[in-house]
From TrEMBL, chain A:
<dbReference type="GO" id="GO:0015271">
    <property type="term" value="F:outward rectifier potassium channel activity"/>
</dbReference>
<keyword id="KW-0812">Transmembrane</keyword>
<protein>
    <recommendedName>
        <fullName>Potassium channel subfamily K member</fullName>
    </recommendedName>
</protein>
<feature type="transmembrane region" description="Helical">
    <location>
        <begin position="7"/>
        <end position="32"/>
    </location>
</feature>
<dbReference type="GO" id="GO:0005886">
    <property type="term" value="C:plasma membrane"/>
</dbReference>
<keyword id="KW-1133">Transmembrane helix</keyword>
<keyword id="KW-0631">Potassium channel</keyword>
<feature type="transmembrane region" description="Helical">
    <location>
        <begin position="230"/>
        <end position="250"/>
    </location>
</feature>
<feature type="transmembrane region" description="Helical">
    <location>
        <begin position="201"/>
        <end position="218"/>
    </location>
</feature>
<feature type="domain" description="Potassium channel">
    <location>
        <begin position="178"/>
        <end position="255"/>
    </location>
</feature>
<feature type="transmembrane region" description="Helical">
    <location>
        <begin position="143"/>
        <end position="161"/>
    </location>
</feature>
<dbReference type="InterPro" id="IPR005409">
    <property type="entry name" value="2pore_dom_K_chnl_TWIK2"/>
</dbReference>
<dbReference type="InterPro" id="IPR003280">
    <property type="entry name" value="2pore_dom_K_chnl"/>
</dbReference>
<keyword id="KW-0630">Potassium</keyword>
<keyword id="KW-0813">Transport</keyword>
<feature type="transmembrane region" description="Helical">
    <location>
        <begin position="167"/>
        <end position="189"/>
    </location>
</feature>
<feature type="transmembrane region" description="Helical">
    <location>
        <begin position="119"/>
        <end position="136"/>
    </location>
</feature>
């Protein structure tokens, strides 16, 4: 009963803290953005007035026209330049759209206009989102071994304490991720897209890889973009790889939290491993001979069983503890 | 049974077993027989197969979207261009380039969320406290509508930092809510199951019925009801409301439809209620999506099992055939050996009877071993395992022969 009451308490605590966090965020955004918005609106009004002053168009007519233009723009159709524009729904652009749908990024730069398109989007998303999550977690599980277990074991082999090895490895992974998936691509994007600054590129990478996908910056949409199809396909690949790395990072952080007892403290669920995954021995060369000695085997049996009982997924500290012959 | 992965609301569909899908079995813990610690990974083949499937799924979706949407897009474009030409022809004094410039500015402003229609005074800011609160909510839940987005450098940097901290926080919250939701539903469904137990219905049927009930009830509460409310308040069509609900609750969040984003006079508590609905609905959808993921996984596992079964059967068949073959070989060799032995002993008897010495050509090239062949099968296997040399020596060395040196070569020759 105590644990049930405690979990309710924790939940209410979380909710309250969440509300406070939201309020705080709202306040800060409001203070930062509102003056800018005022300024822009003023500018626009002056522009409109100027236009109306030396033209014969009435305000009502212009408003009506502008409303239609904006509605079309929201659907991705631009009225500028009579010249033919590449469609938003050719094959690669549609694939880009489908990709934003299944990865749940959802930029919104192009959205389905027809009713049938909307209906199909619903079905497509309901099936495609769990599918994509399955793929991403499968890949992450596959990568977990060479990218997390291996290096941590190597670090431990060099004589670093288990917990410190985990933390150090996490830091290294974080730095690698930052370099390869934020800084590098941001520079590339700011070069490819003329009007983006480096910070805009970083902002875009972050918003995309967290799957927030506000849609204020979307690559490959500049008019006259060369190699648009190739560009869009490479952005799809980048999104996929980046999401995989984010999941990997989250998994590593989750394990760290497990190891340091945070999840137990907050009574949150540990991750699980499905029973149909294959089992693979961990390659730790120096310790392996110790394992095969008959005297140690019983302890390892017990330790292994206990390890399976407590945390059925990879936990570097547990495994390293198991590997040390006692 | 775990709620969705707590640090990312979207990874809820991975291998966690939600207590809301009642088709899961408890995980049996197997104590490893070897003394090695192992890590579990998915096979490469599974991963590549799933990856190829996803790519195919994307391509298929792209083709369908293209077929559905391109005609509409062209129609829209034609319509808006006609409008522009009409406007220009109606108001002759308007300069074409000036109009283009104005439209460009307005489009930019629109992306900043400023609506240029109407006048300055009657505007509701997009960054007043409640809207900013809503925006913060969309960032943390990773929905990210995008109808409002930060435009200052400071706003963007703060957005990044805010999301970095807020997304895991929301993940925790979602896990907690999902757990509580699961408990509530579980209790309700247990009560329903108890009613059914009195009847003679099988366990699986009860499970299936309870899952379906849960899905339907949740759909009613979190999808159908809000869709009706949105249709009524926002003035969307039924499909558009449903579309908005699904796009929001899967956290895709396009932003073409946003509850509370139009120029309607909303009630004061409208936006907070929408936010609360998003929270609980997200937990529900995470459970649904992970259930779908579980089904996909079960299907793939069943296919794997069937393939595995076929492979196991083939392996069994090959093993039995080779065992039979070995057995036949052994029997034949033993029979031949026996026959030869008998022939040799008869010959020896004849020769001793006739006082002849044994013809050298009849003797075996190597000296034979007269062995007690009663447990020959075990001996064969012992020879194969290579560990029973002492055993062999015990049996066979009464004649001083060493089988290792090839004294059983008669049998090897027959082989």
């Amino acid at each position: 009963m105590r644990s049930a009451g405690r979990s309710w308490l924790l939940l209410t605590g979380f909710v309250v803290f969440y509300i406070i966090y939201l309020l705080f965020g709202g306040l800060v955004f409001s203070t930062i953005e509102r003056p800018e918005e005022e300024r822009l609106r003023h500018e626009l009004d002056t522009l409109k007035q100027e236009f109306l002053n030396h033209s014969c168009a009435s305000a009502a007519d212009l408003d009506h026209f502008l409303a239609r233009v904006l509605q079309a723009h929201r659907s991705g159709v631009s009225v500028l330049q009579n010249s033919s524009q590449p469609s938003n729904w050719d094959l690669t652009s549609s694939m880009f759209y489908a990709n934003t749908l299944v990865t749940t990024v959802g930029y919104g730069h192009s959205t389905p206009l027809s009713d049938l398109g909307k209906g199909f989007s619903i079905l497509y998303a309901l099936l495609g989102v769990p599918f994509t999550m399955l793929v991403l977690t499968a890949c992450v599980q596959k990568l977990l071994f060479p990218l997390v277990v291996g290096p941590v074991a190597v670090l431990h082999g060099w004589g670093v304490a288990p917990r410190a090895a985990c933390a150090l490895h996490l830091l290294l992974l974080l730095l690698l991720l930052l370099l390869c998936f934020f800084i590098g691509p941001a520079a590339l994007f700011s070069w490819l897209e003329g009007s983006w600054s480096f910070l805009d590129g970083v902002y875009f990478c972050f918003i995309s890889l967290c799957t927030i996908g506000l849609g204020d910056y979307v690559p490959a949409l500049q008019p006259g973009q060369r190699n648009k199809s190739l560009y869009q396909v490479s952005v799809i690949v980048y999104l996929f790889l980046g999401l995989m790395m984010m999941f990997l990072l989250l998994r590593a952080v989750h394990k760290m939290a497990d190891v340091h007892g945070l999840t137990a403290l907050l009574q949150l669920p540990r991750c699980e491993v499905s029973p149909d995954d294959e089992q693979r021995p961990i390659l730790v060369t120096s310790q392996k001979t110790a394992l095969l000695q008959p005297g140690v085997s019983d302890k390892h049996l017990a330790a292994g069983a206990e390890f399976k009982n407590v945390d059925t997924c990879y936990s570097p500290v547990n495994e390293l503890r198991c590997l040390v012959p006692l | 049974m775990a709620a969705p992965d707590l640090l990312d609301p979207k990874s809820a569909t991975h291998n966690s077993k939600p207590r809301l899908s009642f088709s899961t079995k408890p995980i049996t813990l197997t104590v490893r027989e070897e003394s090695e610690v192992v890590a579990t990974v998915m096979k490469w083949k599974t991963v590549t197969a799933i990856f190829v499937l996803v790519v195919l799924y994307l391509v298929m979706g792209a083709a369908v979207f293209k077929a559905l949407e391109q005609p509409h897009e062209s129609a829209q474009r034609v319509a808006i261009l006609t409008q522009k030409l009409e406007f220009l022809s109606k108001h002759q004094c308007v300069n074409h380039s000036e109009l283009e410039e104005l439209v460009k500015q307005i489009v930019l402003a629109m992306r900043s969320g400023v609506n240029p229609t109407g006048t300055l005074s009657n505007h509701i800011s997009l960054w007043d406290l409640s809207s900013a609160f809503f925006f913060a909510g969309t960032v943390i839940t990773t929905i990210g509508f995008g109808n409002t987005s930060p435009h200052t450098q400071g706003g963007r940097i703060f957005c990044i930092v805010y999301a970095l901290l807020g997304i895991p926080l929301f993940g925790f919250l979602l896990a907690g809510v999902g757990d509580q939701l699961g408990t509530i539903f579980g209790k309700g469904i247990a009560r329903v199951e108890k009613m059914f137990v009195h009847g003679d219905i099988s366990q699986t049927k009860i499970r299936v019925i309870s899952t379906i009930l849960f899905v339907l009830f949740g759909c009613l509460l979190f999808v159908a009801l809000p869709a009706v409310i949105f249709k009524h308040i926002e003035g969307w069509s039924a499909l558009e409301s449903l579309y908005f609900v699904v796009i929001t609750l899967t956290t895709i969040g396009f932003g073409d439809f946003v509850a509370g984003g139009s120029d309607i006079a909303y009630l004061d508590y409208y936006k907070p209620v929408v936010w609360f609905w998003i929270l609980v609905g997200l937990a529900y959808f995470a459970a649904i999506l992970s259930m779908i993921g579980d089904w996909l996984r079960v299907i793939s596992k069943r296919t794997k099992e069937e393939v595995g079964e076929i492979r196991a059967q083939a392996a069994e068949w090959t093993a039995s055939v080779s065992a039979e073959f070995k057995e036949t070989r052994r029997r034949v060799s033993v029979e031949l050996y026996d026959k030869f032995q008998r022939a040799a002993s008869i010959k020896r008897k004849l020769s001793t009877d006739l006082a002849f010495s044994a013809a050298p050509e009849l003797s075996l090239p190597k000296r034979t071993v007269s062995v007690n062949f009663n447990d020959e099968l075990e001996k064969r296997e012992a020879v194969l395992q290579g560990l029973t040399t002492p055993l062999m020596k015990k049996h066979l060395f009464m004649n001083g022969m060493d089988p290792e040196r090839g004294d059983i070569s008669i049998i090897d020759n027959i082989k």
